[in-house]
Amino acid sequence: MIVFAVLYLLALVAFLTGTFGWLGQERDPLSGVFLLPLGLPWILVADLFSDSAKPWFAAIAPVLNILALVFICRWARSLHQK
């Protein structure tokens, strides 16, 4: 779970750096490509959002996976303690 969270943070920094041109980087429309595999399967419902909201949804979709992992780990831990 920690590895997934670190990968998400690195992909988010790459997305924000490429989107806003931080640190002297040129703006890159493909800067969010690393967020896509981390946000699956939620990325598949991105078509429900407007075109301007899609990049931001892609940026927060991995958070849904992190939350799912937290809940699964807590559930598994509670089963193990019984």
UniProtKB/TrEMBL annotation:
Membrane-crossing segments per the record: 6-23, 56-76
Keywords in alphabetical order: Membrane, Transmembrane, Transmembrane helix
Top-rank taxon, per record: Bacteria
Protein name per Swiss-Prot or TrEMBL: Uncharacterized protein
Annotated organism of origin: Ruegeria profundi
